[in-house]
Amino acid sequence: MGNVRVVGLSELSATTVRARLLDQHDRFWHTDTRALHHPVWFHQFGGFGAVAMTADSEEVGYLLGAVTADRLAYLHLLAVREDHRRTSLGRRLCRWFDELAGSTGARVVQAVTRPDNEAALAFHRSLGAATHLSRDHAGPGEDRVVLTRSLSPA
């Protein structure tokens, strides 16, 4: 884990990183999340995204997010490659995002997941997130769980 560094997307080629992550999609995800990797998350919102890279420049984790004008930090995607799970890399990426979001004045972080995504629910709860079932959040019959946690004041 010591050989993994977290690099902000703004320091990398957004187009190249997105392509590489999509090429490795199945090493990060058990469901098809390709549609959630819209280029806007890499280009326009890339300043709030990060990639965890090995010394050999292999992507082993990443986070995509943004902070809204009303200072809500939104964690859009958090992924750790299957061979780097249970190493605290997800927590490390969240700390990176929390620090950046807090520096912009954000005081709350939210994420959204499907109600059956037990791994995501457990992870966010372990970070202190409260959960709220949002009926029809993604359209009729498409319930989601909104996970909300406070950021510590700087």
What do we call the CATH topology?
Answer: Aminopeptidase
**Global geometry:** globular
User: Average pLDDT value?
Assistant: 95
Q: How would you characterize the largest beta sheet? A: 7 strands, mixed
Radius of gyration: 15 Å
Number of helices: 4
Distance between the termini: 27 Å
Give the beta-strand count: 7
Helix content: 10-25%
What would you say the CATH architecture is?
Answer: 3-Layer(aba) Sandwich
The proportion of residues in beta strands is 25-35%
Helix/strand/pairing category: alpha+beta
The CATH superfamily appears as Gcn5-related N-acetyltransferase (GNAT)
Features:
single chain, 154 residues, alpha+beta, seven-stranded mixed sheet, 7 strands, GNAT_dom, GNAT family N-acetyltransferase, Acyl_CoA_acyltransferase, AcTrfase_GNAT_prd
Q: How is this fold's topology laid out?
A:
Layout: E1 5-8, H1 14-23, H2 25-28, E2 50-53, E3 59-67, E4 72-80, H3 89-103, E5 108-113, H4 118-126, E6 130-134, E7 144-150
Parallel strand pairs: 4-5
Antiparallel strand pairs: 1-2, 2-3, 3-4, 5-7, 6-7
What does this structure look like?
With 154 residues, this protein is an alpha+beta fold. It has a single domain, classed as Aminopeptidase (3-Layer(aba) Sandwich). 25% of the residues lie in helices and 29% in strands. It contains four helices and seven strands. The chain has helices at residues 14-23, 25-28, 89-103, 118-126; strands at residues 5-8, 50-53, 59-67, 72-80, 108-113, 130-134, 144-150. The protein has a seven-stranded mixed sheet with strand order 1-2-3-4-5-7-6, covered by helices on one side. The protein is globular and about 45 Å long. The chain starts with a strand and ends with a strand. The model has no long low-confidence stretch (mean pLDDT 95).
